[in-house]
Write a sequence for this structure.
């Protein structure tokens, strides 16, 4: 939610900032803005409603000189998306500019106090409060900018990553974070700021991931200094970040989402590399080796996550219960954090998050930690907040995911959960050797099978054209494929804005069947597994009500082919691995329907990739 970029150095700042905003546009894209300290010594702020490209048009005839600047792409929380509410915001004297990602929870109280002192607000944002507060403290107490920021942040409650420029000090940027991500890039005589590494990696791989309540003092010709609110120096690690530009560019695909769908075979190879040894019949997850005493015999496991990651968690529950015989609950992190869960130190929490920044998931982790649980993270974004908040974990290693609708992260999460369940099951002796061996060997074949499946892209594109008329879709699946149905429906609604519901197939009779008619297509995952016959009965019930059926079936299935209107075949695999294959055609179906409807697939309306606010 909201992307932050900053630059201080010897280059022209504006091109660095705009390029950085484009890389961060997945975080928010309703308005954008930039503040520059220009060569003439002015503080220039340009902002506009719309995307970064709109900002570029807007500034095309303006002074964008200067080697220091900050920039922002917004996902509106307080105040509608327009140029007034866009960031940067300026303090009442006109001297300070701020950009902010997060939410200031006590902004209403602070705003009232500042208004009573005669300060006028221009926007409806919570952010404007911070910049006026800093200015007010600085003037009243005659402090420097850093001390004013430190005092102001002691008053502010909420989440923030901020960066502040001072017109009268062109050699400094002050940045701070609490519960929203912020990275400082360190180059030769230059510094970069980003909500993640993607706007920085082109220039330097040396980065400092700020921790909560860190304040970064960036000054020309000086070393980076990190201090806390009381001005105590904080040691900071400079990490070498391993990310290449190709990973964050489209590579010839029309959309990031399509690129990411097609990357999945390679992503899963990366995810399994060094972890699965088929010849040795072995799975090695260092998190398990290092934490046997917590992980081998927990009282139960609770999986917390949001969105697509929650769907991966539902599959994880089935895998872990099936292979390990440990009871597993799957909770929405947003509900869990406000419940009063009965947790103790014999419980393990698995927190799943692609971005590693989801505010609700982080809060759920903190709650469970306080109650003594052991926390295992499954994340994609390296160095993000959740891996740092957990006791241990496994990265999914699928590379940066930029399309807002999650695809490769989902299959990566399911792959890690599969390896985790297999490794724990083996250690606990709750999975037979034959089954363990068979599943490891089948899992290692999934990338090749995915490649075969992806070759059906054109057929799926043809199928998708038939269905652009629909206003509602139903997705059905059972067992391991029930979460696949939920995820398929989520993909469609996220990017095509067609209403879609996922249901366990047998539940159809308890409500959704009332909706079924010739206007409502039904997608059914009907692979040949133990519940196959029952799903066939469901298809017959749907056809009796004249709805069109798109069926995802096992290779060579003639029975369903005779019943369904459109059929997509999956290569054979173990039942527990079917979600890894079945989710691919559903991702493609959603993608092609959305493209056929002319929707903005990578940046669907109202959504954001990284939900750093509640
Ligand atoms: C947002 C994204 C989803 C994602 C969810 C959870 O809603 O648009 O794609 O599944 O957040 O995010 P996380 O990063 O925690 O997996």
């Amino acid at each position: 939610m909201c992307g932050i970029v900053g630059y201080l150095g010897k280059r022209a700042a504006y091109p660095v900032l705009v390029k950085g905003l484009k890389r961060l546009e997945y975080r928010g894209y309703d308005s954008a803005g930039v503040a520059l300290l220009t060569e003439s010594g002015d503080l220039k702020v340009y902002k506009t409603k719309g995307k970064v490209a709109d900002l570029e048009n807007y500034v095309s005839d303006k002074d964008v000189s200067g080697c220091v600047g900050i920039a922002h792409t917004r996902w509106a929380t307080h105040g509608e998306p327009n140029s007034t509410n866009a960031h940067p915001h300026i303090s009442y004297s006109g001297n300070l500019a701020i950009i902010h990602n997060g939410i200031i929870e006590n902004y209403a109280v602070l705003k009232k106090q500042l208004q009573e002192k005669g300060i006028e607000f221009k926007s409806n944002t919570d952010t404007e409060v911070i910049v006026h507060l800093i200015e007010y403290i600085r003037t009243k107490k005659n402090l420097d900018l850093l001390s004013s920021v430190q005092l102001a942040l002691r008053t502010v409650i909420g989440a923030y990553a901020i960066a502040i420029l001072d017109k009268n000090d062109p050699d400094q940027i002050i940045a701070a974070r609490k519960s929203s991500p912020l990275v400082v890039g360190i180059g030769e005589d230059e510094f970069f700021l980003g909500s993640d590494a993607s706007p920085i990696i082109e220039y330097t791989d040396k980065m400092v991931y700020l921790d909560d309540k860190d304040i970064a003092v960036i000054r020309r010709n000086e070393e980076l200094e990190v201090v806390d609110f009381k001005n105590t120096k904080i040691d900071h690690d400079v990490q070498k970040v391993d990310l290449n530009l190709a990973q964050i560019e489209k590579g010839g695909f029309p959309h990031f989402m399509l690129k990411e769908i097609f990357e999945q075979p390679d992503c899963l190879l990366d995810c399994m590399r060094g972890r699965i040894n088929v010849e040795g019949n072995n799975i090695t997850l260092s998190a398990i080796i290092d934490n046997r005493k917590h992980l081998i015999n927990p009282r139960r496991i609770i999986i917390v996550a949001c969105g697509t990651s929650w769907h991966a968690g539902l599959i994880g529950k089935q895998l872990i219960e099936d292979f390990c015989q440990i009871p597993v609950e799957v909770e929405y992190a947003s509900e869990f954090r406000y419940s009063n869960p009965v947790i103790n130190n014999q419980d393990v929490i698995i927190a799943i998050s692609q971005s590693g920044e989801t505010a609700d998931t982080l809060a759920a982790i903190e709650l469970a930690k306080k109650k003594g649980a052991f926390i295992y993270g499954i994340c994609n974004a390296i160095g993000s907040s959740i891996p740092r908040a957990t006791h241990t974990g496994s990265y999914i290693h699928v590379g940066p995911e930029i399309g807002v609708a999650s695809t490769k992260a989902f299959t990566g999460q399911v792959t890690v959960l599969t390896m985790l369940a297999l490794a724990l099951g083996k250690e606990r002796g709750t999975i037979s050797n034959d089954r363990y061996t068979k599943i490891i060997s089948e899992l290692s074949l999934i990338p090749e099978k995915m490649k075969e499946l992806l070759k059906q892209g054109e057929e799926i594109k043809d199928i998708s054209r038939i269905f652009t008329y629909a206003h509602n879709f139903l997705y059905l699946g059972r067992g391991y494929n029930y979460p696949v149905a939920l995820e398929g429906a989520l993909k469609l609604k996220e990017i095509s804005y067609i209403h879609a519901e996922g249901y366990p197939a047998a539940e159809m009779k308890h409500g959704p069947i009332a909706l079924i008619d010739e206007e409502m297509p039904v997608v059914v995952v009907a692979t040949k597994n133990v519940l196959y016959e029952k799903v066939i009965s469901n298809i017959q019930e749907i056809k009796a009500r004249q709805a069109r059926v798109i069926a995802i079936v096992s290779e060579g299935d003639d029975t369903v082919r005779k019943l369904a209107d459109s059929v997509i075949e999956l290569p054979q695999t173990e039942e527990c691995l079917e979600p890894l294959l079945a989710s691919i055609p559903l991702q493609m179906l959603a993608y092609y329907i959305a493209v056929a409807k002319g929707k903005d697939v990578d940046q669907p309306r109202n959504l954001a990739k990284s939900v750093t606010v509640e």
User: Anything to note?
Assistant: The chain has a mean pLDDT of 95. The pocket of 6-O-phosphono-alpha-D-glucopyranose is lined by residues 306-309, 353-355, 358, 361, 404, 406, 607, 609, 611 (CB under 6 Å).
